[in-house]
Amino acid sequence: MKKIYNRILSIVGNVITVRAQGIAYEELAEVKTKRGRSLAQVIKLDKDLVSLQVFLGARGISTADEVRFLGRSMKVVFSHNMLGRIFNGSGLPLDKGPSIEGKLIEIKGPSVNPAKRIIPRHMIRTNIPMIDVFNSLVESQKLPIFSVSGEPYNELLARIALQAEVDIIILGGIGLRYDQYLFFRRVLEEGGALSRSVLFIHTASDPIVEGIMVPDLSLAVAESFALEGRRVLVLLTDMTNFCDALKEIAITMEQVPSNRGYPGDLYSQLAARYEKAVDFEGAGSITILAVTTMPGDDVTHPIPDNTGYITEGQFYLRGGRIEPFGSLSRLKQLVNDKTRPDHRAIMDGMIQLYAKYKETEEKRAMGFRMSRWDEKLIKYGEMFEREMMDLAVNIPLEKALDNGWRILKSCFLPQETGLRSELIDKFWPQ
Amino acid sequence: MKDKEGIILGINGNMITVEFSGSVSQNEVGYVILPQERLMSEVIRIRGQIAYMQVFEDTRGIKVGDKVEFTSQMLAVELGPGLLSRIYDGLQNPLEIIASQYGFFLKRGVSLGALDEEKKWHFTPLVKEGDRIGAGEYLGWVAEGIFKHYIMLPFNFAGRYKVIKIGPEADYKIKDTVAVVEDKNSKAYEVKMVFRWPVKIPVKAYKERLAPSEPLVTRVRIIDTFFPVAKGGTYCIPGPFGAGKTVLQQITSRYAEVDVVVIAACGERAGEVVETLREFPKIPDPRTGKTLMERTIIICNTSSMPVAAREASVYTAATLAEYYRQMGLDVLLLADSTSRWAQAMREVSGRLEEIPGEEAYPAYLESHIAEFYERAGRVRLPGGNLASLTIGGTVSPAGGNFEEPVTQATLKVVGAFHGLSRERANARRFPSIDPLESWSRYESFIAEDKRLFAHNTLKEGNSVAQMMKVVGEEGTSLEDFVMYLKSEFLDSVYLQQNAFDPVDAQTPRDRQEYVFDKVWEVLKKRFSFTSKDEARIFFYSLRQLFIDWNYLAWQSEEFKKQESKIDKFLKEGNEKDI
């Protein structure tokens, strides 16, 4: 029989303190309040003073409310019946379906032994040229989509979810607007992908602590599927809300903030989640795509900055297009040598020329006369934007490469492209 | 002696507060005793009878009242034959062996011996009974891969010792006694092939430290020619994410002309280590014919592994590197990234509720960074032979802004600065070392006047480019425009290097000298063009010829053929000949 405590000493933010003994760090407790029951987790032990963060928030909690310790840490049920289902940030069904029976698995489990990791080797085709040609997505990769509010990042995420060749999709929504949640559900349903998906949804109106749990729940379930040999794609949106929730808790706990109020361990916290991306030798894999909206469109803000250092590249989504500058898939080199011999050259060459086009654009905007070379660049830049960058372009990689050569030919002489002669001999359209 | 014990009073993240009886020392290691596991931790502050300890593992499930066992030892590593080609975590646990015993995940509380205690090594003695020796002097050697691994008198033996017994040439296990020595009070000590050394104490068993004067060839052209590194020197690579820090480190770890490379993957992505881990056993080392793995040690404490062990990992790496330096080898330590290490210090400092300095980093940040880089050096060993430890660290400045505390503290103490620029990375100009901002205090093997001339071309070309943005191409004189084209040419064919091409990724010293001369001739040459378009086409064609040249094997037939093509083109300047 677990002991019940009904004297709450302090309530600060979402953190309550009780006096109790024999409590383990990160143990779960249940708080019974007038508003109902809520889970809470031990986040600090100081002699017999136990601090807990309450998942449903501390609003309305009375000092006489009951706290019952459960003698275990946070776990989530794992079962194949989860497919097609929607859960909240406490892991409870949100879709009015029956509760799930299955084995309880630990969340935030130990990290994968680096010696057991293998070099990623499978490209995930998306039929989006800006991804497939210029920044190929690779199985087991972790990539954020850096964007700003108002950009169609959730639409992009949904399109990748439908088109990417994977077995299971886990969608973790953190601080979603309710209509965004409905959008994802509808798109996955209509695209016929819901039956291979599990959704963990925390909406903006839900308690903030539940938002923190969403990535952990999503990744724990993803890990179990991957260990069974499935290729899992985890989509998280929006990780900025996750970081802001961490900040809120840290400030409540009176931690010394490091940068713009964010806790000093923001990097480690994010890494603990993103590093769950893995390709298990002899089993499945986890690939993570996570939206990070940049506050004030500032990539040096602590959230995108720390994220960028952890992830294997990033996509910038701006003006409804994936930006060629800055966008980078760090793992593309592992797969784009196996596609077609001209893949890398087209990738680098076209971007270098596009960078020159951008310089010329600047000159033109300032009213300078355009040289013959500038005019070539302008023609090229416009074609590139129209036939490669536009997100509406939906073609396989090989077709996109052919288009690349065609664009180059219609704008330049071979030696103006800076491409190696042997490739030009082979691929320059006649 | 009975083990000292403590009782846990509080837990906050990876920090525990422990009440102890008797005495404990700063940085002493203790173990949290749980029913199933023993969690290693380190004392980082003592107040009265309360010790604050950082736990090197996840603290989930620890309770107030749990026991802590103290060891009276500081955090130490095992030094002995068999370290090369291994992969360890920050506390020197062998990760491949843990993987083979425990599977995919890093189980908490698992700690295994760093070295194989069963393996036999063929020991050849170098001293005889009656000889007098001191710490770091050689008792004998065993063959470890391609090296003579010297068995030394352990570094903590102060003063002179008399060898009273030395094992004959035979096979020994690392824990067998190979020698017995006695101090001046005739107290005898057994010496084994393995001993422990505390990681936070630099090894100083050498006669003197020398100035780093000999170049360390990395085979990266922009580094060796413009911003060289010296053996025994230090350098840092700060850069925003995506600028290619890690690729640059990987290239260096492959091609740098040193004997041993220690890679400290500190708080970075696990995937990056994996590339090294899986590729190195397959890549032949051009200098020895064996695989690269045989000269490499990887210390791997990636970002999702416990943060306290991350703090320890750079010291572990430095200690192993120093150990091999003591054998007369040139060792290169690559730390990626020192910012993660600094952040680990910051996390610990925050939990200790220390008064924060800039950006909440602790006030001792600078001195810790300086101490770390000062472990590098070129030294004369007790036997008179020279050896060096070179340290290169990447820095990951927040927001790519070099004004932040870790970059600034690092710049104060290193000998070369390879600043990576986001603009160059975005324009796919790799390696993205900024040629205008970077510097080095070491000497290049390229003649100083030629190097300066080339560097000036870059500066002038850059100012023309800046000016052209304002006045446009038509407002630029033909002379200035040619200067701009020359600097772009130098950038494209010499500064940029394709890290993924087997030939272009590594340019040995003699090829650099050769190609640089040819590039320099172009830069020096006066051209008479009639129009900017003519100049542009000329330089673009020339660039094409040089880029193709870079991809051809050094001194091969094709290489020479391409060279004569270039010579001809330079002479005639006639585009139709290509």
Task: Walk me through this protein's architecture.
- The complex is a heterodimer of chains A (about 425) and B (about 575).
- Chain A is α/β, with parallel strands linked by helices.
- Chain A has three domains: about 70 residues, Elongation Factor Tu (Ef-tu), domain 3 (Beta Barrel); about 260 residues, Rossmann fold; about 80 residues, no CATH class.
- Chain A is built from twelve helices and 23 strands.
- In chain A, strand 17 and strand 18 form a beta hairpin.
- In chain A, helix 2 runs parallel beside helix 3 and helix 6 crosses helix 7.
- The longest helix of chain A is centred in the last third of the chain and has 23 residues.
- Chain A is elongated.
- Chain B is of the alpha+beta class.
- Chain B has four domains: about 70 residues, Elongation Factor Tu (Ef-tu), domain 3 (Beta Barrel), CATH 2.40.30.20; about 70 residues, OB fold (Dihydrolipoamide Acetyltransferase, E2P) (Beta Barrel); about 230 residues, Rossmann fold (3-Layer(aba) Sandwich), CATH 3.40.50.300; about 130 residues, Bovine Mitochondrial F1-ATPase, ATP Synthase Beta Chain, Chain D, domain3, CATH 1.10.1140.10.
- Chain B is about 30% helix and about 25% strand.
- In chain B, strands 8, 18, 21, 22, 23, 24, 25, 26, 27 and 28 form a ten-stranded mixed beta sheet that branches. A six-stranded antiparallel beta barrel of chain B has the order 1-2-5-4-3-6.
- In chain B, helix 10 packs across helix 12.
- The N and C termini of chain B lie far apart (about 85 Å).
- The C terminus of chain B is likely disordered.
- Strand 5 of chain A pairs antiparallel with strand 1 of chain B.
